[in-house]
Design brief:
Helices cover about 45% and strands about 15% of the residues. The longest helix has 23 residues. The protein is extended, with a radius of gyration of 21 Å. It has one domain. It is α+β, with helices and mostly antiparallel strands. A hairpin with a 4-residue loop joins strand 3 and strand 4. Strands 1-2-5-6 form a 4-stranded antiparallel sheet. Strands 3-4 form a two-stranded antiparallel ribbon.
Length: about 130
């Protein structure tokens, strides 16, 4: 089955989901985890250098902190342009042009208690993402 195009609201929903995923990724990469609680001196020197570069404060300027001046709203407005740049949303929008996402659905497969149907969405020209 081939669907013509997706409605604009679905495209917007996909963009919002992409932005949320990207934001979550930035948050995960910019906060300390349990493994980072180990003292850097407990690692071999080459690992210490790597971890020092990876978790350097300079590279976490948009990490949210409880004492962030202006709170979460200010942090969000400060971080959003950098997130858009890192994710490449402007480049994506420019390369997509007037492309409308296309969805193709395979025939449903009866698995007893439920049906499974594979689909593919072309989110950008020549970028196809499979889903179930």
């Amino acid at each position: 089955m081939n669907l013509k195009t997706l409605p604009a609201r679905l495209m917007l929903r996909d963009r919002v989901r992409l932005a949320c995923c990207a934001c979550a990724t930035v948050l995960l990469l910019s906060t300390q985890g349990r493994a980072q609680e180990k003292d850097f001196d407990d690692y071999p020197e080459h690992v210490v250098k790597y971890l020092g570069r990876l978790f350097d404060e300079e590279h976490r300027q948009y990490a949210f902190r409880d004492d962030y001046s202006g709170g979460v709203r200010k942090w969000r407005s400060d971080a959003r342009p950098e997130l858009r740049r890192l994710v490449g949303l402007e480049k994506i929008a420019a390369s997509v042009g007037r492309h409308k996402p296309q969805v193709e659905l395979d025939e449903p497969e009866d698995l007893g208690d439920y049906l499974r149907q594979r689909g593919t969405i072309e989110t950008e020209p020549d970028v196809r993402i499979p889903f179930w």
